Amino acid sequence: MSGISPRWPQKTRELHNHHFDSTIWNDFVFRDDDIVIGTYAKSGTTWTQQIVAQLLFQGAEDLPVAEMSPWLDLRVPPKAVKLEAAAAQTHRRFFKTHLPVDALVYSPKAKYLYIARDGRDVVWSLYNHHANANELWYRLLNDTPGRIGPPIGKPPASIRQYFLEWLEGDGYPFWSFWENIRSWWEIRGLPNLLLLHFAELKADLPGQIRRIAAFLEIPIDERRWPAILEHCSFEHMKAHGSKSVPLGGACWDGGAQTFVHKGTNGRWHDVLTEDDCRRYEAMVRQRLGEACAHWLATGERLDRDASTTHWKRDAMAAC
């Protein structure tokens, strides 16, 4: 059966907390070539934004990526300010979101990149982000108008305790890890979504950049390829973090170089016990299933061939 359109996801709820105001997507006007970069958080978001910027602007120096690519569903500044700024952009737009799919307006017009990372590595990066946040960060999240729900507090001194609270509280004190990963995994067969993984970016950055370029239909000027690669390296991003980090890093002690921290995986090995890891791995399989759990841990898609026609099968079943 040819010519069948996929079932596009529908928004079914709003998410509000110290960070989120998902209602901004209800008023956002998409353009045909928009790019949306999604993650749970601390999974390679800023890295992917940098890659997209470098592809769009062919290796240009000192691009203000954080300004060019705002986090739309962050509730500060107010959505009216962000919507006006987004409407005024004249380049091909690229935004970031940390929402699960069912709290997002998903557009057939846009292209979506979703980046995942092993949850243990996420938490280690998240702890650095949270533990080094300064009073400005807390003031913006807790004391500005529009917050719904409890404020976010300071993290415990122990990173292991932080991990266990995050695991047992499903993303506490931020938002659900399982529903975020699961919601994007479940739509992996859609033709305008590309799944990425932090481990794949680490293992083969040139190959992944070319994969992203092909998906976004951005021709690469090969004369600019060395500059694109250099500007997407961790070393370059850390040295020039004030351009890619929100507010230039003003919300963290140590500034942008704290936000762009180590970019390494596996730092939990010497802290978590074997029992901790078994609890995490069992919960991943229980909440996400074996195929998604394997992908989340490794970046390997066991269903890669079958998933390309997943949305077509769903559409045919609906006929």
From TrEMBL:
The keyword Acyltransferase does not apply. Its EC number is 2.8.2.-. Residues 32-289 form the Sulfotransferase domain. The keyword Transferase applies. It is an enzyme of class 2 (transferase). Keywords: Transferase. GO terms for molecular function: transferase activity. Gene3D superfamilies: P-loop containing nucleotide triphosphate hydrolases (3.40.50.300). InterPro entries: P-loop_NTPase, Sulfotransferase_dom. Belongs to the sulfotransferase 1 family. PANTHER family: SULFOTRANSFERASE SULT. This is Sulfotransferase domain-containing protein. It comes from Benzoatithermus flavus. The lineage of its organism: Bacteria, Pseudomonadati, Pseudomonadota, Alphaproteobacteria, Geminicoccales.
